[in-house]
């Protein structure tokens, strides 16, 4: 006659913790239900957080970005009045092509504080009015060294956007081949541009005049700033054109075409203060 082996009390406690098989089954089923409930709750919480994050980082900024770009395209900027025809350090100007296109900022994304983020594209627009996205501060590299306020040919210059909440600088990443121009958050060597004359006989000490044709040569890559009229871009503010830096462009007059010619545009006035009647 066979007898069932009965576990000692300490072994029973070791394997079942004092629970019967029925109690253990109930316990396992309760744990499964609890686990499923926790997983569902966690999943709902994760989905809610994900949706909230998507609305915060994608859907809402997309609408806000469109409104922001349109506000940049409708808010006029005040250009620096020019009294002597010479480009000066700190002037607020527009940069236009010989065909009348204006260099403009085209933001990709918008930050939580209402400032546009990088990378920010640089395009050329047919809108010739001075706007927040088409007006730039120009800064000379000679001011700190030689205290020269006037721009001369060969000067290394910086161009900073007029949007006060998020000022940006023109920037070209050291490339191979043709490269698009973007805006950078902070100063770096690849933000420097050299102002050159279209004439090879021009001396470097010659002053840079507003509204005169010039060539902007990137200091790091030796590329010339150019606009591609055959590459229209559809944006939220209409059709615009791609702005690039031409690879391997030399400084000789032979390589400078109409797409490489720019001019600093500023309103000209013969006096700065209102005239008084004598």
UniProtKB/TrEMBL annotation:
<dbReference type="InterPro" id="IPR055325">
    <property type="entry name" value="CF161"/>
</dbReference>
<dbReference type="Pfam" id="PF24569">
    <property type="entry name" value="CFAP161"/>
</dbReference>
<keyword id="KW-0969">Cilium</keyword>
<protein>
    <submittedName>
        <fullName>Cilia-and flagella-associated protein 161</fullName>
    </submittedName>
</protein>
<dbReference type="GO" id="GO:0031514">
    <property type="term" value="C:motile cilium"/>
</dbReference>
<keyword id="KW-0966">Cell projection</keyword>
<keyword id="KW-0282">Flagellum</keyword>
<dbReference type="GO" id="GO:0060271">
    <property type="term" value="P:cilium assembly"/>
</dbReference>
